[in-house]
Structures are given as structure tokens and as C-alpha cells.
Amino acid sequence: MTGAAPRPDSLRTGQNRQNMANRNEVEEQNAIDKLNTNLSEASEKIAQNKKVIFWTVGGLAVVAAFVLSYFFIYRNPRLNKAYEAYNQVEIQAMGNDSIAAEGYKKVADQYGSSSAGNLAALSAAEAYYGQGKYKEAVKYLENFSTSEPVLAANALALTGDCYVNLKQYDKALDYFNKAIKKADKNPQITPRVLLKEANVYDEQKKYDKALECYMQIKNQYPSFQTGNGIDIDAYIARENARLGK
């Protein structure tokens, strides 16, 4: 009898172990279920992200394909044709302003704001100016644009020359002023345009304004040569005489 006494304790211990085992099993199962849930949610997020990534990459691919198509299928061949047409006019014209004007006009009209069309507009304007067709020259000069300051200044000065020949002196002066600003004190362009301004002021009998132009040339651009053999001091002396000085 005494040997059987410990059995209740061993039974309780065994039961406790069984309960602990059951709890561990439940906890392990809960952990597995939780892990499965997390993995499922993660998979769903990855799947959703894959869709977003797919459509994003796909969209970028479409845009890239469109851009490349524009450059290689449309823009570059069109630009090449424009330059071919421009060069063809150069060959055909051979210094003939009439042929050049009509040829460049066609290129400028057909190819518009492309680099070749833009260059053709300036060339057409120069050719029309050579023919004495100043209104036509102005039209194509207005279609010309460039970010290069020297070329822009010369184009503005040529527009001013057109208006001088059209006897629209105020417009001519306006374009000469624009050319001077664009030239930004370029020693080759600025004094030349100032000389043009002075000639217009002389035509308007604004001798004081003409004198200002000549004095600016003398003081700021002393090495400038008028190109006609007349020294700038001679112009200054003439204006002073006209002003009674």
C-alpha cells in the first residue's frame, strides 16, 4: 500500500505534461497559422505590386517606343530631307538671288520650325533683300529664330535694314536697338549697328541723336573701322557743324 501512494502525484505530473504539450501544440499551430496568414498577405502585396510594376514598366516602354519611333521614323528622316532640300537650293542658286529666294522659301514653308526650315527662312530673307523685296524679307526674318546671340543680332540688324529701305524709320530704329542689346557689346556688331542708327537719325534730321551714336562708337569701340574710308571723327565733326557747335 505504501508503495502505491506516489501514483496520484505522478498522474498529476503526467497530466500537467500532457496539458503543457497540448498548449504547446496549440501555440505552435497558432504560430503556423499566423505565419501562413502573414505569408498570404505578403504574397497578395507582391502580386499587387507586380501588377503596378508591370503597368509602370509597360507604360514607360510604350513612351520610350513612341519617342524612339518619333526620332527614327519621323523626325530624323524628315530632318534629313529638309537639309537635302536646303543643300539642293544652294547648288541650284549659285548666287542667283531670284532662284535662291524661291528655293529657300519652299524649304522654309515646307519644313517650318525645324533647324533646316529655320535656316532656310533666314537664307530666303537674305535672298529677298538682295532682290530689293524688303517686305518678303521681313516676313521670313520674322519666321527665323535662334538662341545664338551673334546670329540673332545680325538677323535683327537685317530686319532694321529692311525697314530703312521701306522708309519706316521708327521700326528700323526699334530693330537696331534690339540688335544692339542682343549683341551685348560685341565689338564687331555693336558699332556697325550704331552706325546704321546714326544714319537713320541723320535722315530724320535728329543730329543730336546721331552724334550720340558716333560718340559711343569713338569712346567704346576706338578700333572700329567704318569700312568706307571715313574716320569716325569726321562724322562727329559733321554732326557738330550741323548742330552749330
Sheet with the most strands? none
How would the global form be characterised? Answer: elongated
Fraction of residues in H or I helices = over 70%
Helix-strand category: mainly alpha
Number of helices: 9
Tally of DSSP β-strands = 0
SSE layout and pairings?
Elements: H1 7-93, H2 97-111, H3 115-131, H4 134-142, H5 149-165, H6 169-183, H7 190-203, H8 207-220, H9 232-242
Helix pairs in contact: 1-2, 1-3, 2-3, 3-4, 4-5, 5-6, 6-7, 7-8, 8-9
Summarize the structure.
This protein has 245 residues and is an all-alpha fold. The chain contains nine helices and no strands.
How would you describe what is shown here?
With 245 residues, the protein is mainly alpha-helical. Helix content is 81%, strand content 0%. It has nine helices and no strands. The chain has helices at 7-93, 97-111, 115-131, 134-142, 149-165, 169-183, 190-203, 207-220, 232-242. Helix 2 (97-111) runs antiparallel to helix 3. The longest helix is centred in the N-terminal third of the chain and has 87 residues, at 7-93. The protein is elongated and about 60 Å long. The termini are far apart. 27% of the residues are buried.
